[in-house]
Amino acid sequence: MPAFDNNETAETVIGNSMNSLRKIVDRPCLLVNKLNVRKKRIWHVPRPEANAVCSSEFVPFSSHSSDLSFIKISLLSERITAYLESCSSGSSNSQKRVTPEIIMSSEIIAPSLAEQRRIGAFFDRLDSLITLHQRKYCGVASWMLGVALVRLSSEK
Q: How far is it, in rounded angstroms, from Cα 95 to Cα 34?
């Protein structure tokens, strides 16, 4: 999950350097993490690049009858997360997984497709604004730290 945890930025690697199984991602989809579902790793891939693959820890979910942005928001809800957590099993809390069948059988209440698209677009814009402001904040914090270090070194 390094690429997901790196701001959901795809990572380019040489195929034979991968130490685990991979799944081909060849259509728009949601990549739903089945490991440690409480971390809520769900990646919307609207346009996968050529030769795109994902870790076998993700379940690719695609749909022609639902809006993927809306489904993502629904899957990130506390209700679905609690359900998935209650169905997960494993040798330790850090290695609990759900099966793809459990993810696919999660019940989501969905309005019409047009309404799903409006809701999904709203949350996509909101996520973009949050990301933008987080990056600005990190940039300002980094700049302030640099100024403080310069001042400390000049006082010595």
A: 10
**pLDDT per residue as tens digits for the range 105-134:** 888 888 999 999 999 899 888 888 887 777
Q: Which amino acid is at 33?
A: N
Cβ contacts of 7 within 8 Å, gap of 6 or more: 131
Q: Phi, psi (5° rounding) for residue 98?
A: -110, 160
Instruction: Please state, as a whole number, how many other Cβ atoms lie within 10 Å of the Cβ of residue 53.
Output: 16
pLDDT single digits (tens) 5-50: 666 666 777 666 666 678 889 999 999 999 888 899 999 999 998 8
Contact 23, 60 (CB under 8 A): yes
Q: What is the pTM of this model?
A: 0.69
Distance CA 68, CA 28 (A): 8
Which two tokens mark 6?
A: 């790196």
